[in-house]
Amino acid sequence: MEDEKAPLVGEIEEVDATPEDGTPRTNEMEKHVRTKVPEAEIHLYRQGKGPVAVFKTALGGWEQDQLEVQDILEKHGLKSVYAFNPRAGGRGVPVRFNPRNGRSVLTYRDGAVVYLDGEPKDSLVKPVTRILIGVALITFMITLVSRDTPEWLKKLNFSGVNFPPWILACVVIVFTRMRKRTKDFLKKRGW
């Protein structure tokens, strides 16, 4: 019976949570163990201009050495980021990232300074207005070419000429081909 009362070797004994001096612990006296999260400093440029933002971001991943590229893209409204050399003013290779977790493929050291050049997302206003103007133009041309001209168009008939339908089809094809081949031409003109 005495063997049952004696503690066994390796047995866990219950101990009071108060310190030896008898005063209970407060939140101020508790010890916290904090580990330093690896960070990288990002200098973000937008199409070679800037920097538009300078910030520190935590490195992620299993080894905590990868940039959270997807978060940077979403936060700053970018569709892609590239390595950037501010002294030469040139854009480098795109920063590749894993599409599943959004982390960079390349690794970075703690405290690294990274220069990135971002390409902004395309606005939906310009393509929608282009499509609406194109549809309005084609509709207007169809009404000009149709055999039965509406009354309101008869009042505004300034050409006095009816076009055959094949000419209208050619105009539509030329318009769409021109738009595809001259994207840079239209972009330079503000379209």
Written account of the structure:
It is a single chain. The chain has 191 residues and is of the alpha+beta class. 32% of the residues lie in helices and 20% in strands. The chain has helices at 2-5, 69-76, 125-145, 151-155, 165-181, 183-188; strands at residues 39-46, 49-58, 78-85, 90-94, 113-120. Strands 2-1-5-3-4 form a five-stranded mixed beta sheet. Strand 1 (39-46) and strand 2 (49-58) form a beta hairpin.
* Main beta sheet: 5 strands, mixed
Give the helix level as a range of percent: 25-40%
The string of secondary-structure elements, in order, is HEEHEEEHHHH
In spatial order, strands of the major sheet run 2-1-5-3-4
Content of β-strand: 15-25%
Task: Please mark out the parts with pLDDT under 50 across 5 or more consecutive residues, or reply none.
Answer: 7-13
At a glance:
The protein is an alpha+beta fold and 191 residues long.
Kindly list the characteristics that best describe this protein.
191 residues, alpha+beta, five-stranded mixed β-sheet, 6 helices
Give the helices and strands, then pairings.
Elements: H1 2-5, E1 39-46, E2 49-58, H2 69-76, E3 78-85, E4 90-94, E5 113-120, H3 125-145, H4 151-155, H5 165-181, H6 183-188
Parallel strand pairs: 1-5
Antiparallel strand pairs: 1-2, 3-4, 3-5
